[in-house]
Automatic annotation (TrEMBL):
Keywords: Proteasome. Pfam families: Proteasome (PF00227). This is Proteasome subunit alpha type 6. InterPro entries: Ntn_hydrolases_N, Proteasome_alpha, Proteasome_alpha-type, Proteasome_sua/b. GO terms for biological process: proteolysis involved in protein catabolic process. It comes from the Eukaryota. Belongs to the peptidase T1A family. GO terms for cellular component: proteasome core complex, alpha-subunit complex. PANTHER family: PROTEASOME SUBUNIT ALPHA/BETA (PTHR11599).
Amino acid sequence: MTGMIADSKSQVQRARYEAAQFKYKYGYEMPIDTMCRRGCSMVLIGYDDELGPCVLQGRPAGYYCGYRAVSVGAKQTEANSYLEKKLKKKQDLQHDDVIQLAISCLSSVLSVDFKPTEIEVGVVSADNHKFRKLTEQEIDRHLTAIAEKD
């Protein structure tokens, strides 16, 4: 999330509460698009049993939209342009390629060469539906792969 850390934590806590209430009431996990309708300006990632891995962005006006890739924050226009160009060239990316594209986008837009301790990468995949953060070793492996491509 971008923005005020306290606000972000509050939104995440509220989203978890809403998801728990939904599961208690209906007996199954809340679909990500249902969660997105209840949020404000935030990007959600998750796994939907019908759609697979999903990226959705909710807006304060109350609408939401699904994306193949999206960014938010101060340089979102540049980042979204970068992602559009790269995704037009490659339609079917593998798990590692997606992670490396995200890191490359962030690095390019911010003009920074990251160290594994300077970024966090969260993933959801078809193999593992639960959100998890990559370890520093995994991030380092991806940074090395990016450097070798350049």
